[in-house]
């Protein structure tokens, strides 16, 4: 016979439930299990162009652990950062605002981005001298403006030589960060990198990321598990960020598993989630599935649209909204306009899939794209759901 002492009532997900000291202890254990099973790296990129429309003060930090300033770019010749007064003011505001939030978050500045190109990074990484200048400048900027770390968004290394030099860069960066922290007594800066969704880039010349160096030197990588189809393929619609690919290997599940298969430390693998959609103009509005013939880009900015705007577009145009079960993705159709995107019903299984892999977490591109935080909050609710299920199971056995 089991005796229960210290009985009291608590609220879980809005429900009033009787519990006990035994259950309390069990819940503590559940919390520890969740923390081991799914590390709490919940990141979001904040684009600097959103300073006026969506300032950092608008970010609801309860749903994030790390927020990235996107982007800063080094000088194309010296590979060092030249911060003007306007940018300096924005950087100071970014870190100060987010560090003062409750709960607080870690801040990193991200370097490069998709529009910055690859060649400058290739040039920078090609010699010890240029790598050293770049590394020293990143540390200086991080400390000057109060960042907790630095994120490298090199899209993308083009050759195996680039990849090898990327590894050298990480080796030297880690040494410099460790030495700076030891000499100043300050916490070590975080080092992360945004990467292709797979460890091997299968373009004209197949080239692979230096996984050994990543494991040794980076705190984590942000695998960009999106943009599987887009404006560069104007002739046919395509899913943006499918969890599964029934007809091939272009999917988030394949990408994450590929990283694991080549030996990435699971806690250093972070899954990317898009808060935007990609759009096409259909050739024939009656032929509107995934892969339907298209004649170019659809509404939005160069065939792209924030998730919040997608929802508005769907409502305003009485769009047909389809959840595609085989790929775990969404698309909507209004006339000849076709949009591929993610929504609650597709993001939640992705987070659960990431949990099942025991990887480090997830991140969003970008935090400004959400609608009333309905996507950003899913990871938090997933943990609460797990705890509630554990409590419920004990209650049923009492």
Provide an overview of this structure.
There is one protein chain. This protein has a single domain (8-274, 343-397), classed as Glycosidases (TIM Barrel, Alpha-Beta Barrel), CATH 3.20.20. The protein has helices at 21-37, 85-99, 119-124, 128-144, 160-184, 211-217, 252-261, 307-316, 344-357, 378-397, and strands at 8-12, 15-19, 41-47, 66-72, 106-112, 149-153, 190-195, 200-201, 207-208, 220-223, 269-274, 276-282, 294-297, 304-306, 320-324, 329-334, 337-341, 361-365. Residues 1-19, 30-39 and 383-393 have low confidence and may be disordered. It is α/β, with parallel strands linked by helices and 398 residues long. Helix content is 35%, strand content 23%.
Features:
eight-stranded parallel barrel; 398 residues; globular; TIM Barrel; disordered N terminus; single chain; alpha/beta; 18 strands; six-stranded antiparallel β-sheet
Layout of helices and strands, plus pairs?
Layout: E1 8-12, E2 15-19, H1 21-37, E3 41-47, E4 66-72, H2 85-99, E5 106-112, H3 119-124, H4 128-144, E6 149-153, H5 160-184, E7 190-195, E8 200-201, E9 207-208, H6 211-217, E10 220-223, H7 252-261, E11 269-274, E12 276-282, E13 294-297, E14 304-306, H8 307-316, E15 320-324, E16 329-334, E17 337-341, H9 344-357, E18 361-365, H10 378-397
Helix pairs in contact: 1-10, 4-5, 5-6, 7-9
């Amino acid at each position: 016979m089991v005796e229960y002492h210290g009985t009291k009532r608590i609220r879980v997900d809005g429900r009033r439930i009787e519990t006990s000291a035994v259950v309390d202890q069990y819940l503590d254990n559940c919390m520890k299990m969740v923390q081991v099973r799914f590390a709490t790296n919940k990141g979001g990129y904040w684009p600097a162009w959103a300073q006026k429309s969506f300032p950092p003060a608008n970010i609801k930090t309860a749903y994030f652990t790390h927020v990235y300033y996107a982007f800063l770019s080094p000088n194309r010749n010296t590979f060092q950062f030249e911060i003007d007064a306007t940018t300096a003011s924005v950087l100071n505001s970014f870190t100060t605002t987010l560090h003062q939030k409750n709960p607080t978050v870690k801040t990193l500045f991200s370097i490069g981005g998709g529009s910055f190109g690859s060649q400058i990074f290739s040039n920078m990484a090609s010699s010890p001298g240029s790598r050293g200048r770049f590394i020293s400048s990143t540390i200086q900027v991080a400390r000057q403006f109060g960042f907790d770390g630095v994120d490298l968004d090199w899209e993308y290394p083009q050759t195996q030589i680039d990849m090898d030099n990327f590894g050298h860069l990480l080796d030297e960066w880690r040494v410099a960060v460790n030495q700076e922290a030891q000499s100043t007594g300050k916490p070590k800066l975080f080092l992360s990198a945004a990467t292709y969704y797979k460890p091997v880039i299968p373009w004209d010349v197949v080239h692979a990321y230096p996984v050994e160096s990543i494991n040794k030197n980076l705190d984590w990588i942000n695998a960009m598990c999106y943009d599987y189809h887009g404006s560069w393929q104007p002739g046919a619609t395509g899913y943006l960020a499918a969890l599964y690919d029934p007809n091939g290997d272009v999917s988030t599940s394949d990408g994450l598993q590929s990283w694991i298969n080549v030996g990435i430390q699971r806690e250093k693998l972070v899954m990317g989630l898009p808060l935007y959609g990609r759009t096409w103009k259909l050739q024939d509005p009656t032929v509107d599935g995934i892969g339907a013939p298209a004649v170019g880009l659809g509404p939005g900015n160069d065939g792209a649209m924030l998730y919040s705007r997608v929802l508005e577009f769907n409502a305003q145009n009485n769009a047909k909204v389809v959840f595609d079960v085989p790929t775990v993705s969404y698309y909507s159709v209004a006339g000849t306009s076709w949009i591929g995107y993610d929504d609650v019903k597709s993001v939640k299984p992705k987070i659960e899939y990431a949990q099942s892999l025991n990887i480090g977490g997830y991140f969003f591109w970008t935090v400004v794209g959400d609608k009333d935080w309905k996507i950003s909050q899913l990871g938090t609710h997933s943990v609460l759901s797990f705890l509630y299920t554990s409590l419920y199971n004990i209650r049923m056995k009492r």
